[in-house]
Amino acid sequence: MTINRDPKKSRIFYGWYVLAASFLILFLSSGARYTIGIAFKPLIAEFGWSRSAVSLAVFLNMAFYSLSVIATGKLYDRFGPKWVIILSTLFVSSGYMLMALSQTLWHFLFLYGVIAAVGLGGTTVPIFAALMSKWFEKRRGLAISLALSGSCLGQFALVPLFTTLIADYGWRGSHFWIGVMMLVLNLGLTFLVIRGDPEDLGVIPYGRKEKSVNASSHGDAEQSPPEKDLGLREAMRTSSFWLFVLFMFVCGSGDFLVTTHLIPMVTDYGIPAATAGNMLAWFGLLSLGGILVAGPASDLIGDRIPIALTFLLRVLAFLLVLRYQTMVSFYVFALVFGFTFLVTAPLTPTLVGRLYGFSHVGVLSGFITTLHHLGGGVAAWGGGVLFDLTGSYQAVLAISAVMAAIAVVSVMLIREKREAVS
Question: Is the pTM of this model over 0.90?
Answer without folding.
Answer: no
